[in-house]
Amino acid sequence: MLNSYSSADKVLLAVDCIIFGFDNEGLKILLIKRDFEPEKGKWSLIGGFLKRDEVLDDAAIRILNTYTGLHDIYMEQLYAYSDIDRDPVERTISVSYYALINIENHNAELIKNYHAQWFSIADAPNLIFDHDEMVQNAIKRLRYRTSIKPIGFELLPEKFTMRQLLELYEAILSKELDKRNFISKINSLEILNKLEEKDMQSSRKGSYLYTFNKEKYEEKLLNDFVLNL
Amino acid sequence: MLNSYSSADKVLLAVDCIIFGFDNEGLKILLIKRDFEPEKGKWSLIGGFLKRDEVLDDAAIRILNTYTGLHDIYMEQLYAYSDIDRDPVERTISVSYYALINIENHNAELIKNYHAQWFSIADAPNLIFDHDEMVQNAIKRLRYRTSIKPIGFELLPEKFTMRQLLELYEAILSKELDKRNFISKINSLEILNKLEEKDMQSSRKGSYLYTFNKEKYEEKLLNDFVLNL
DNA sequence: AGATAAATGCGTAAAAATGACACTTTGATA
DNA sequence: TATCAAAGTGTCATTTTTACGCATTTATCT
To answer: Domain Nudix hydrolase spans what residues (chains A, B) (predicted)?
Structure first.
């Protein structure tokens, strides 16, 4: 009985996480200042190596937790990067994962302790290796996802205004949307609960707060649709 | 200067290729009868191991060539599969690639010598490991691709009839399409050249042959669109 | 009390896309 | 020359999308 493919080469397999967040200022990504060589002190995606007895999805979760304290984050696999010299130390293939999370919910404190930091997409620093390319591809995927699945549950606070949702979509798609049409399209998805309560920060009149209807939201997640914004 | 990440585990990295082809009979995939253990003699995707100094894209090309003699095939990366026991011999992560190719152009002879064989999607045998899952995901991706990029250049003969193109789309999407609407939608893409020449096999009247307008086709490949069939 | 500013809600006209549908043409064959 | 089988071709009603307009509501600011 065969117990190894002896002639085949083994390589290091890494995972890098692109974590998107959103707040009043716009779409952000979570980066860390690398605390080991090479490129120590430079900004990078949150990454680490796959262990021998670990599934990639789990590795992504573990690595994210190790560097940020974040847990219960659902990430999706994106792409495997394999340029020979992408990591100058040793041949490493890296599989990228991405997630959307709610910045407020996820304890800025903890992230701080771990030296992770949010950056606006627009003015993020240059990243090490091929991480900038990974981020660009992740943004592309995020845009696509936006057109076939509802987005927001993961990125907005529990209660949010229509304007916030609109601004989220505008930030992801990086284009302006007509408020009236946007509202009626979103309403037609039937994934929101309108609350009695209003947010009085934003204006004198105040704007109604909404929450996501979790059940309907998840139903929509299962069955792709086309959302034309 | 650091020259290894000594504490990290190394793993085998494989590539598996899902090769789609099309002929009068419909959409097919190319499989091989495994000539080594484990699962020797069973049907499987065309796969092999990444070499230490090789990029994944190149590995896919090399492996496909090794087992089928095919060359100059453009493949796209799909997904990395990493279940712990997906390969019973040794921990192996596999990255799947897929391609569309023209069955006729690619020399049935050569494929035969290499023991590779075309199977209709519908009645392909069960495959080893997680290869069935890989195929299902590739079909999903192929359908998606169909809705945002033109397809056919890779799958049809140089000259083809509208009916052939229609049947290709029907095979990929596995649904019937209205001939008249299909033709006008395809024409609106402006990627076809209508020839003077007719194909007289198909009917007494004969049907016009078309070729792809390579330039416009590739322009469309760059800029995604939405094709609603 | 009145002005203000933003949110909301209703509406609609024009443009675009979708989808359903049927008859004519053609060349080979008998 | 009548028949056949497949190719080829256009119209129109409906729905969806888009781009706006505008009157109303309401808490606050003066």
So the answer is: 10-143
In a domain, residue A154? The reply is no
Q: Could you list the residue range(s) of the whole structural domain that residue A184 is in?
A: 160-222
From A28, A29, A27, select the one nearest A167 (Cα to Cα).
A27
Q: Examine the fold and report which residue of A90, A115, A148 is the final residue of a domain before the chain moves on.
A: A148
Cβ of B184 < 7 Å from strand D?
yes
d(CA A27, CA A21): 6
Window 50-89 of B, Cβ < 8 Å to A: 50-57, 77, 79-80, 82-84, 89
Nearest to B97 by CA among B138, B51, B131: B138
Among A199-208, B41-50, B196-205, where is mean pLDDT lowest? A199-208
Q: Note the pLDDT tens digit of each residue in A159-169.
A: 999 999 999 99
Rounded to 5 degrees, φ, ψ at B72 are 55, 40
Query: Considering only CA atoms, which of B12, B25, B145 is closest in space to residue B91?
Result: B12
Q: Decide which of A114, A148, A182 is a domain's last residue.
A: A148
Q: Do both B106 and B139 map to the same domain?
A: yes
The answer to whether A22 and A101 are in contact (CB under 8 A) is no
